[in-house]
């Protein structure tokens, strides 16, 4: 199966730091304006996905959820979680006090990849 999400080494390192400080995590990418373009990192259970939001995979063992409407738009795109220095929009994400912000890089799946995509889990 083709994974819908991967993570860069820099993001992996930051996730390990956040786990040491906060324990289990979860990620959510909203579909609205402003913070909607930046994935948010919360303590597990610190944010509740809405009905029909899509869990597209695990990042270092932690769920990565995407807003239901945003997923419809990006369902044929591969997500790569990265991190940048700076203050992202919103400021609610756990990496913000560290002067970091998570970012997603997108690319379209190839025709071959689309034939074997890993399934998503919908919040019911």
UniProtKB/TrEMBL annotation:
Protein's recorded name: DUF779 domain-containing protein
Organism: Sphingobacterium kyonggiense
